[in-house]
Amino acid sequence: DIQVTQSPSSLSASVGDRVTITCRASQNIRSFLNWYQQKPGKAPKLLFYVASNLQRGVPSRFSGSGSGADFTLTISSLQPEDFATYYCQQTYTSPYTFGQGTKVEIK
Amino acid sequence: QVQLVQSGAEVKKPGASVKVSCKASGYTFTFYFMHWVRQAPGQRPEWMGWINPSTGATNYAQKFQGRVTVTRDTSISTAYMQLSRLGSDDTAVYYCARGIYGDYEDGDYWGQGTLVTVSS
């Protein structure tokens, strides 16, 4: 299976901060990477598909980039509703494995 | 509006089986693959498999091969996920989801989740 590793596992930030989360795959997955946001007790919500395609309805302060094995999710100006856990998922090959998550907490 | 409504929480003994349903509404059921994803408490999500509701074709994660069966009933726009030989590590919230692989442009939709607890 393709392993997907996120960093950091958690971070503390303030409203208005720029936040960057990275995701590294254990092999080249081209651009087949999704990003999700999950809040407690809720299902994940898709933010980006194929690395950089913003899902409809997602604010433009979110951006996704990368290809090959290294990917980045950036929030340009953190808002109160962005405090959540973020997951990346590779969809290059089955099983479509998720990273361990990055919890974004309020500083 | 698109909705995926799952069956209620289950408590099962080790070795038993569970069958979770996912009723779709607000769109043509046969037009979109349905996926199953589970999430154990405090853990990352885990993709289990998908079904093509139009043909019935399935694809399962190797980890669940032989234990999971995903089916559908197109007459009632419902997908099912059955997991057999349950162990304590199968305790998780199980989700059905649409639009999380390949058919992204029409949005992603998730069921509300079904908690399956495996306990003796």
Task: Briefly summarize what is shown.
The complex is a heterodimer of chains A (107) and B (120). Chain A has strands at 4-7, 10-13, 19-25, 33-38, 45-49, 53-54, 62-67, 70-75, 85-90, 102-106. Chain A has 107 residues and is mainly β.
Please tell me about this protein's structure.
- The complex is a heterodimer of chains A (107) and B (120).
- Chain A has 107 residues and is mainly beta.
- Chain A is 0% helix and 48% strand.
- Chain A has no helices and ten strands.
- In chain A, the strands form two sheets. Chain A has a six-stranded mixed β-sheet, with no helix packed on it. Chain A has a four-stranded antiparallel β-sheet with strand order 1-3-8-7, with no helix packed on it.
- In chain A, strand 5 (45-49) and strand 6 (53-54) form a beta hairpin.
- The radius of gyration of chain A is 13 Å and the shape is globular.
- In chain A, 34% of the residues are buried.
- Chain B is built from no helices and eleven strands.
- In chain B, a hairpin with a 5-residue loop joins strand 4 (34-39) and strand 5 (45-51).
- With 120 residues, chain B is mainly β.
- Chain B has strands spanning 3-6, 10-12, 18-25, 34-39, 45-51, 58-60, 68-73, 78-83, 92-98, 109-110, 114-118.
- The radius of gyration of chain B is 14 Å and the shape is globular.
- In chain B, the strands form two sheets. In chain B, strands 2, 4, 5, 6, 9, 10 and 11 form a seven-stranded mixed β-sheet that branches. A four-stranded antiparallel β-sheet of chain B has the order 1-3-8-7, with no helix packed on it.
